[in-house]
Amino acid sequence: MELSTIWFWIIAFMFIGYFVLDGFDFGVGMSLPFLGKDDVDRRVLINTIGPVWDLNETWLIVAGAMLFAAFPEWYATMFSGFYLPLLLILLALIARGVSFEYRHQRPGSEWKKWFDGMIVVGSAVPALLWGVAFANVVRGVPLDADFNYIGTFFDLLNPYALLGGVTTLMLFFTHGVVFVSLKTVGDIRLRARKLAVRSGLVTIVVAASFLVWTTFAYGTLASAIFAAVAAVTLIASFFANLRGMERSAFALMAVTIGLAVLTLFASLFPDVMPASNDVANSLTIENASSTPYTLMVMTWTAVIAAPVILFYQGFTYWVFRKRIGRSHIEDHELAPEVAVH
C-alpha cells in the first residue's frame, strides 16, 4: 500500500477521533436548555467536559495540519471552496471557548445567560456544519481544471448535505446526553438518560436515512458494510441506554460515529474531492498528495508522537473519570467552573 493511501486513512482516523471526542462536547453544550433547570445544573453540565473540551479540540488542529501537509491540494480546494462554512465553525468554536472561560467571572444571571446561549449556539453550529461539509465532499462539488471550487455557498445547501448536517447534529446531541448520564449522579443523570432515549429515536431515523442515501447514491461495498454495522451499533446503543447501561451506550455511540466517518471516507476512496461537473477535474489520492519524501517524514513523526499523545489523553480521562453532581457544586461555590484544568 502506498504512503498516500495510508495517509488518507490516517486523516480518516483523525476525524474519527475529533468527531467522537468533540462530538460529545457539542452534545453537552446543546443539552443546556434541556437539562439545565437552574444555574447549578448548568454548572454540573459544563463541568462534565471542563477538564477535557480543549484537549478534544486539538484533534481538529492536528487533523487540519496533517491534511495540509499530506494532501495540500485537497486542503486548498476544501478550505477555499468551503470558506464561509468553515469560518462559521471557527467563530462558533471561539464563542464556545470564550463562554466556558468567562461565564463564571461575574455572578449576575444575565451575564451567565448570554454566555450559556453562546455555548449552545457554539456547539450546535459546528455539529450541523461539519455534516454539511463532509456530505458535500462525498457528493461532489463543481471544480475547474485547476481544482478550484466554482460553485456558490448556496450550492452547498443541497438536500443531501442538509440531511448530513442534521445527522451529525443528532448524533452529537445524543452522544453528549449519554455522556452526561455517564458522568453525573442524581436527578440530572436520570433526566439525561430519558432525554437520550427520546433523542436516540430521532437519531436512528435521521442517521439511517442519511446512510441509506449515501450507500445507494455514492457508496461502495466497503461503505455499505460500514453503514450497516453503524446502524446496528446505533440501535444497540439505544437499547443499552434504555436499560441503563450507560458505559455500553456511550461506547456504542462512539463506535457508531466512527463507523459513520468510515462510511464517508470509504465512499470517497480513491477520490478526496470528486468534481460533480466533470470527473476529469476530480481530486484523487494521487494528484492531491504531497511527495513521497514528505509522506515518509510525516509517517516516522506520527509513529513516534502518536503513542505519547494517545497515552496522555487516555491518562487525562482516567484522572477525571469520577462522576459529579449538584452537591459538588453546592459544596464548592467558590471553586472555578472550568477555568482550571
Automatic annotation (TrEMBL):
Membrane topology: Multi-pass membrane protein
Subcellular location(s) of the protein: Cell membrane
Keyword Cell membrane: yes
Domain of life: Bacteria
Coiled-coil regions, chain positions: none
GO annotation terms (biological process): aerobic electron transport chain
Molecular function via GO: electron transfer activity; metal ion binding; oxidoreductase activity, acting on diphenols and related substances as donors, oxygen as acceptor
Keyword Cell membrane: yes
Name of one Pfam family that matches: Cyt_bd_oxida_II
Entry GO CC: cytochrome complex; plasma membrane
Keywords: Cell membrane, Electron transport, Heme, Iron, Membrane, Metal-binding, Transmembrane, Transmembrane helix, Transport
Transmembrane segments: 6-32, 74-94, 114-137, 157-183, 195-216, 222-242, 249-269, 297-320
PANTHER family in alphabetical order: CYTOCHROME BD-I UBIQUINOL OXIDASE SUBUNIT 2, CYTOCHROME BD2 SUBUNIT II
Protein family according to the UniProt entry: Belongs to the cytochrome ubiquinol oxidase subunit 2 family.
UniProt name for this protein: Cytochrome d ubiquinol oxidase subunit II
Encoding gene per record: cydB
